[in-house]
Design a protein that fits this description.
5 strands, Helicase, Ruva Protein, domain 3, elongated, Rossmann fold, 2 domains
């Protein structure tokens, strides 16, 4: 609606996990490097946590895209893990492109074993990514995930598991020492600082087709404060600010407009 007014090619602040819009702050870059290290070194398991809207899911999608583009990896991306342990195993098998879905748990595990060894013989990594893992409320599901890490040879794991979730995931993992001990690397994503908020906003505007400084410096300071540096909140504020700016026929976005927008958003 506001694209023509601001001369944008597309919406710059959509809250969708589009890898083209990822902004690598130092913390996102480090998180990505740690996850890649665990996969490349076949270390077994990693955990990435962060506040709601910190950019975890987008980072996961970028990781999946790179792994699949490399064509030496099979990836199961589970975005709704609120399942029984058997259904979760079925979903993993399905994501790994099994041509059949066995009915019993034992047959599922046999098929998974076959897939893992087939990938190993083809020199392909097998990666299982569990997004929103904090919604798992049953210990038997976490136990099943832990047991998947028993698929290993003497000198390496046959799969890599990455658990991604909000901060409460850490507490749940702490309560299961057997699983916690299998996690080689854990990392927590926080909010962006003021300088990175500015870089984030202009990065997304540039991807959307404009390099003009649409947001004044004081406006960016306000966005940083109201959003706590969380990309999802930044996107919400900037999206409505562009829309309101169009209604008011503004030439750019100032701090007064940000105050108005955030009041409407109840921030």
């Amino acid at each position: 609606m506001y694209l023509e007014y601001w001369r944008l090619n597309e919406k710059p602040f959509e809250n969708t996990p589009d890898p083209r819009f990822i902004y690598y702050s130092p913390w996102h870059e480090e998180a990505y490097a740690r996850l890649k290290y665990v996969i490349d070194q076949k270390r077994g398991a990693a955990m990435l946590t962060g506040e709601y809207g910190a950019g975890k899911t987008l980072l996961a999608r970028v990781l999946v895209k790179e792994l699949l583009d490399g064509q030496n990896c099979d990836v199961a991306l589970i975005v709704n893990p609120m399942l029984s342990e058997v259904d979760l195993l079925r979903e993993i098998i399905f994501q790994l492109k099994a041509d059949r879905l066995p009915g019993t748990k034992l047959k599922i595990l046999h098929l998974l074993n076959d897939i893992l060894y087939e990938n190993y013989n083809k020199k392909k990594n097998t990666v299982i990514i569990i997004d929103e893992a904090q919604v798992i409320n049953r210990k038997d599901v976490f136990e099943e995930l832990r047991l998947l890490l028993n698929f290993q040879l003497n000198n390496r794991f046959l799969l890599t598991m990455i658990l991604i979730g909000q901060p409460e995931l850490r507490k749940k993992i702490d309560d299961i020492p057997q699983l916690k001990q299998r996690i080689a690397i854990a990392y927590h994503l926080g909010g962006l600082d003021n300088m990175r908020v500015s870089e984030y906003i202009y990065h997304r505007l540039k991807v959307a087709g404009i390099e003009k400084e649409l947001f004044q410096g004081k406006a960016i300071n306000k966005i940083s404060d109201y959003s706590e540096g969380l990309p999802r909140k930044i996107n919400n504020i900037c999206e409505i600010a562009l829309l309101q700016g169009m209604f008011e026929k503004r030439l750019d976005i100032d701090d007064e407009l940000i105050d108005k927008v955030t009041k409407d958003l109840s921030l």
